[in-house]
Amino acid sequence: MKDFLLTTGEVALLEVERFRQGDLNQQRRIEALLLLGQGESAMEAARKLGVPPWQVQAWVRCYREEGLIELMRRDFQTAPCNQEEQTTLLQELEQSQKSLQKNLYDLKALIRQLRDSLPLSAQDSDLAHWLVRLEKTQENLLEAQKAQQAQLASLKSHLSLP
Prior knowledge:
Blueprint (H helix, E strand, L loop, with lengths): L7 H13 L3 H14 L4 H8 L3 H14 L1 H6 L9 H35 L8 H34 L3
């Protein structure tokens, strides 16, 4: 959707929430928002997520009008994914997990590099404050990553996948 824009803060929140959510349907809703925020059409996002385009549009409408909490809470009537679609979604989640792991590694290296280059006189500066916030974000993402790994393992066993 061309008119669907997400702020950097919204993208960050959605990324964290995507990994915190244990329900595959909720993860798809968030993924749809992220895809649309990247400029993809509702049709493209629907195809990637294995849902009808009208469903993606309903999720966007709910997010815009009522917010993320309501989007996660609401029971949308959708047809369940078949085995092939579930396998595809799991593969995409696994790829996303690998990407998150690399980004977390890069973030850790960046934090270490910034911390090492921060002069002692600047310990109380805005930069030091932002480093602390980055470290907290990293901790939250690591927690979310661990939860997602457990969820992926559970989903795989439920679907009898290797």
